[in-house]
């Protein structure tokens, strides 16, 4: 199965769900190229970018699990191939 490069953008509004998010990301760690988190203290949110290289179905499963967490908004952007 061909892999794709994608960026998952996450905005975390509830810091109480960080552990749940980290558990999910750990499950998919073999596909993660890197991640960066930025706390935006003025708005009390955290902005997280996760770069992945994985088959499309894996990316969809990962983003779906992340999107179902209450207090999180997420979107996926795929690299042009």
UniProtKB/TrEMBL annotation:
Coiled-coil annotated residue ranges, if any: none
InterPro entries: Acetolactate_synth/TF_NikR_C (IPR027271), ACT-like_dom_sf (IPR045865), FeFe-hyd_TM1266 (IPR023860)
Domain of life: Bacteria
Entries under SUPFAM superfamilies matching the protein: ACT-like
NCBIfam families with a match to the protein in the record: hyd_TM1266
Name recorded for this polypeptide: Iron-only hydrogenase system regulator
Lineage: Bacteria, Bacillati, Bacillota, Clostridia, Peptostreptococcales
């Amino acid at each position: 199965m061909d892999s794709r490069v994608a960026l998952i953008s996450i905005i975390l509004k509830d810091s109480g769900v960080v552990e749940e998010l980290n558990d999910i990301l750990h499950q998919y760690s073999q596909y993660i190229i890197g991640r960066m988190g930025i706390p935006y203290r003025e708005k009390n949110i955290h902005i997280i970018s996760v770069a992945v290289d994985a088959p499309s179905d894996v990316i969809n499963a990962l983003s779906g699990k992340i999107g179902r967490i209450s207090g999180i908004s997420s979107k996926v952007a795929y690299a042009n191939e």
